[in-house]
Amino acid sequence: MTTSHASPPRQAVAPSLRAPRVPPPRSRAGRRAEGGSRIASVVAALPPFPGGPEDRIQRPCLTELRLSAYANHRRGVYRLGPVTLFSGRSGSGKSSALRAYAALSRLGGGSPVREVFTDVGECVPVWARADREGRRGFRIGCTADGPEGPVALDVAVQAEPRMRIVGERLSAGGRVLLETALRDPTQSYVDAAWYTGGSSPRMRAPFPDDRLVTSLLPLRVAGRTGGQRHVLAAAEQMVVALRSAFFCDPRPDAMRVPVLPGSGRLVAGCDNFADVVFRTRGECAARHAALVVAVDAGCAGPVVDLRAEATRDGRLHVVLDHGTGTTALPRLGDGELRHLGLALVLLTGTGVLTVDAPGERPTALNALTVLADNFDNLLDLRQRHTLLELAALMADRGHVRLLGTSPDAGWAVGAPGVTVVHLEK
């Protein structure tokens, strides 16, 4: 589902509206015997993406995160699979790795560096020493795979005495395509040089030191030569891979509160869960059926439907239909609510989430990355495995990738399609 949706008129919200139901399982014992087959079957029945599997392979995505000197990471190189969990004790750097990914995503979207890194103390390594001018900073980077092959981006940020990007390098196939450097510390710009492949092998121009130059290149590079077009294609691949990220942390207390009908685009805390369920249930029966199966696997009692109903004041709240009765969201446990929120995110797309997706490319050609810190927080083992299976199945379709953290992800080791990165304190 990638189409936009206007706020539904209040009178259209009625308890009698129902999407096609998924037949309930014969018994709990039968569902346990089937394992994850029901989720696999409904995901397999989802409408295919436009363009077929070839386009899926070409969707840009990050395959490596490099934290050369960031927070408590030193020379950290982490391979990222379709579903990746960072695991380790408190203080090992799980959350800071996710923050670095999210920061790169915002830089790729054109956000100023001062807005991205608001707390210098969380970024500069404790062992970093200031130079004679009192400058300290950190270095992060990543690799994006896609039609141009692996493209690497490395960024050096000066945090003190003034926040700025002092160095940036974009490279692919062993060739440096873009390189920047701070030549004059008294000026608020960097000197950038990019590959042309023409009579003059490189062109130079000043760029502001508070934004990622890679995201600004299309505004300055004409693309007249093959080399320039290669630089533009590599920069576009990196920016698309970075911007397609959604930080998700469902808040059970907020999900229990009825909400007014709105845009139908889910926020990070899933506060407007009811509004989004109302939209998705009416727009895509197949995805809603898959959501019902995932909810049934993670909630107490059989669940045959999930719908948003209107209260007397026109607000929306969600109820679970058990076939013999209903349960409102406020009666669910915190783990069940987090399970519902994460399942909805994994089954929807950029058109349903408040994500800064690249508008210059069709959303079907983007692979969304869901960032979930403390992914297994409040979830029991059954819910963890259900969500992990759902994430792996959707990732195999090229629809979504998952990057999460867990204090102890031993329960996920060996799961198909899942990469567990163990961090040492």
Describe this structure in words.
This protein is α+β, with helices and mostly antiparallel strands. The chain is 29% helix and 25% strand. The protein contains 12 helices and 16 strands. The protein has helices at 28-34, 37-44, 52-58, 94-108, 113-116, 213-216, 226-243, 252-255, 273-283, 285-298, 334-347, 381-396, and strands at residues 61-70, 73-79, 83-87, 136-145, 151-160, 164-172, 175-181, 189-195, 202-208, 245-247, 305-310, 316-321, 326-328, 368-372, 400-406, 418-422. The chain has an 8-stranded antiparallel β-sheet, with helices on one face. A hairpin with a 3-residue loop joins β5 (151-160) and β6 (164-172).
Task: Describe how the helices and strands are arranged.
Blueprint: H1 28-34, H2 37-44, H3 52-58, E1 61-70, E2 73-79, E3 83-87, H4 94-108, H5 113-116, E4 136-145, E5 151-160, E6 164-172, E7 175-181, E8 189-195, E9 202-208, H6 213-216, H7 226-243, E10 245-247, H8 252-255, H9 273-283, H10 285-298, E11 305-310, E12 316-321, E13 326-328, H11 334-347, E14 368-372, H12 381-396, E15 400-406, E16 418-422
Parallel strand pairs: 3-15, 3-16, 10-14, 14-15
Antiparallel strand pairs: 1-2, 1-4, 4-5, 5-6, 6-7, 7-8, 8-9, 11-12, 12-13
Helix pairs in contact: 2-10, 2-12, 4-7, 10-11, 11-12
